Amino acid sequence: MTAADTQPPAAAPPQFVAEGPWRTRGEMALLYVASILGALGLSALLVAMTGHSWQRVFGALLDGAFLAPGRWGNTLTVAMPMLLVALGTVVAVRAGLFNIGQEGQLLMGAMLMAVAGTKMEGPGVLLLVVGLVLGAFAGGAFAGISAVMRYRRGVPEVISTLLMVFVALQLTGFAVITAWFLRDNDPNRPQRAQTSAALDADTHLPEIHILGNSFSLGVILAVILALLVAFVLARTVWGFRLRVLGHNPIVAQKIGIAAKHTGSRALFISGAFAGLAGAMMLASGSSSYRFTPGFSTNIGWQGLLVALLARSRPIACIPMALLFAALRTGSGFLASTGVDRKIVDVTQALLVLALLIPPAVSFVRERRRAVAAATGDRV
Amino acid sequence: MALPEDIPQGAPAALEVRGMTKRFGNLVACADVDLVLRRGEIHGILGENGAGKSTLMRMFIGLALPDSGTIAIDGEPYRIIDPLHAAARGIGMVHQHYSLVDALTVWENVALGETGRLDPEATRARIRAISERYGLDVDPDARVRDLTAGVRQRVEIIKCLRHEPRILILDEPTSVLSPAESEQLFSVLKEGVRREGWAVALVSHKLDEILHASDRITIMRDGRVVHRVLTADANAASLARAMVGRDVSLRSESAAIGVVDEAALAADTATVAANVPPVLEITGATVRGADRRVLLDDLTLSVAPGEIVGVAGVEGNGQEPLSHVMSSLLALESGTVRVAGAEVRTGVAGAMMHAGVAVIPADRHASGCVMDLSVAENLVLSSIDRYTDRGVLRRDAIRKRAEALIAEFDVHTPGPDTPFGQLSGGNQQRAVLARVLSVGPKVLVAVQPTRGLDVGAIEYIGERLQRAAADGIGVLLVSTDLGEIAALAHRIAVIYRGRIIGEMRRAELDMERLGLLIGGSTEGEAA
């Protein structure tokens, strides 16, 4: 506006959002707190309506998750695979893809860890590393099938990743009942028909003992990976391309980011995180180091929720994973209060809804503002 | 600023508004506007993009509610709260963007929004009656998707007329029409005004057509009325000055408000060396859409280095597919694209960009930039590889480069880290321009580069295109705005149904012939 600068400004139109970021952020924080308190309040009300004491229920949850001896270490170990799954979800979402088949990819990863740990020969540490790598690769390859379907045939990845979960369930179910595959062939063990043999002690992930608690080394690895994902997405060219693809595939195509390649890689990595999560779960002692058909115990689905609630920010996945893990481990202590542990599922669902409220409010507000702007300054 | 209204004694005011004010946040879209629409009169409302014309009209039919001000219909105060309400009081509006359902027939579209039982025969008869009465030739059983923009607009007008409005508002009605179609629209309006005593508000940013079609002119700038005049007493120069707020002399500026001075154009035709091999050669380009409809039909076009070639035509005649081919978004079925002599594969991600083709797309929001990234990230989008160190982004270098481009292209932003979506339209377009020019392209394809921008930005974009050509870049300017093309292009090609059906050098510019070509040659005369 070189020439226009000499003109007196007439009702200068604001070019930028006038509202300060701090005011908005403060409001958002307040909204989050109010929403969470609302969810907890509703849960308490539900407990009270069934004739129990909500104070005791919350006390039991806290004990089970953190306060009782050895519990917080346990919670950390449960949070680990959720965090890994969530990180993979974040990578896919940033590329504009929605991988919701982590439950299956996680099973595939755990299965390959079991193969490495019980069927291969070699030094324990090597087998552990091979198992983790194979597990990650298996999860990635499993998601990669969906990538091929998407970019070759236009099958939406949301559908194909979901349906592949059922393929994984069948495949892993077959593995643990088949003698030449993963079935535990130890004649001394009763009811061995549905599980693999246990991993040898030297292929377990080391445990860290601290303050009377112990947790898997995988917890540290997962946190490091969260930092790494955050760095790669924000600071590297590869992450930049991924974000461009996710935000605007048309611009991406123009500047030489082929959705086929970058998107396929993102889906592979997404699956690899879920596969790694499964492998680490097994090597950290889930279901006594034995691979079973129901091994994943919804960790894949919950990891998805973690990513959703962290709004695809890798670092934010850490506290969210911890929250979900705490609800899970805390529910183990509910029996003493006489309240059905299903109450935890209700609380969890309420929390998910509660955490979705503030973003929804801000979305509606932004849209109103956009509509006002669009009808205001367009001629 | 408000000048006194010159109301002839005794004339009944169909619609009279006083002190209309509308704010959006801190933006004052309309400030204390008075306006009187009279029966038997076409009232031209002229102003740049963003002057507040549309907002004012939207308040007339209840699409926007005024913060303050009064509306009187036939002298009776009235509060309009929604379009149905306005329709009941005899106010109808034809919007700039059509709201027709492509898959339905004309009569089905007209019947949409009616209450009660559907009566196809009655609707068809009604459409035929209106068509005959006003000379709006439309077949009630035609499918909307098969109609040209001009006929679609007739359908919109019929939708509006079926309510028998006495006050008719048309918002930028000619933006998708060929000159012949515009002419026909104006004669329909004049006929309605003469025979039925309509009060018409004709909103436009094109000075020429307002001068031509209206009886009275009101000019708005920055949300205020700055000038009122009877068309008979008006002259182009003073109107232009009132509209822009200063003397208008630059050619690119005149183009922005639709003034074409043919004599001046012919006088200084830049000469482009004849024997230079073209930097862009499109040969026999053919593309069919998903529904097998031909989008580009054996299109052949070449641009020499330093030349600006204007592609003129009515919207929807292949401009978009042409732009998509040049952006690597669409692959040719047959034909070739050569840049500086080397063939470029079409539809391969980044191939055009790497060959040296830069594109300013018509829909900059959708395909020119990434709204959710920062201004700096957008500025280095096409050259990101230059700002990395073993795969890690060199943020200082990106920031520095962005600051340099922001200064060079005069992008108004609080800083390089501002989200791109927060820039105003003109500044977004400057940033897109900065990005595509900063990588040293051989070919620049600018598609509707000034649509929706204010005069300052339009002027700037025009200068930049000229400077790019002066630097030896081959510029392909695709625009539906004849004034813009006539002002900037050295050579003009007319696109019609995916083909180039005629070319002329600026020295031989003949607006009449150009207008006919744009309407599809002889078909333009008949339509």
How would you characterize the overall build of this protein?
- The complex is a heterodimer of chains A (379) and B (527).
- Chain A has 379 residues and is mainly alpha-helical.
- Chain A has a domain at 80-311.
- In chain A, 69% of the residues lie in helices and 2% in strands.
- Chain A contains 13 helices and two strands, in the order ααααααββααααααα.
- Chain A has a two-stranded antiparallel sheet.
- Mean pLDDT of chain A is 84; it is low at 1-21.
- Chain B has 527 residues and is α/β, with parallel strands linked by helices.
- Among the domains of chain B are: 101-164, no CATH class; 261-356 and 444-527, Rossmann fold; 365-440, no CATH class.
- Chain B is built from 20 helices and 22 strands.
- A six-stranded mixed beta sheet of chain B has the order 6-7-8-3-9-10, sandwiched between helices.
- In chain B, helix 16 (425-438) runs parallel beside helix 17 (455-470).
Quick rundown:
Chain A has 379 residues and is mostly helical.
Helices and strands in order:
The complex is a heterodimer of chains A (about 375) and B (about 525).
Chain A lengths: L20 H29 L4 H14 L3 H24 L7 H18 L4 H30 L3 H21 L29 E4 L2 E4 H19 L1 H11 L1 H6 L4 H25 L15 H11 L4 H17 L11 H36 L2
Antiparallel strand pairs in A: 1-2
Helix pairs in contact in A: 1-2, 1-13, 2-3, 2-12, 3-7, 3-10, 3-11, 3-12, 4-5, 4-6, 4-10, 4-11, 5-6, 5-10, 7-8, 7-12, 11-12
Chain B lengths: L12 E12 L2 E12 L2 E7 L5 H8 L7 E6 L2 E3 L4 H6 L2 E4 L11 H6 L8 H15 L14 H13 L5 E5 L7 H18 L2 E6 L2 H7 L2 E6 L2 E7 L5 H9 L6 H6 L5 H6 L12 E9 L5 E10 L4 E5 L6 H8 L7 E6 L2 E2 L7 H5 L1 E4 L3 H4 L7 H5 L8 E2 L2 E2 L1 H14 L16 H14 L4 E5 L7 H16 L3 E6 L2 H7 L2 E6 L2 E7 L5 H8 L3 H5 L1
Parallel strand pairs in B: 3-8, 3-9, 6-7, 7-8, 13-20, 13-21, 16-19, 19-20
Antiparallel strand pairs in B: 1-2, 1-4, 4-5, 9-10, 11-12, 11-14, 14-15, 17-18, 21-22
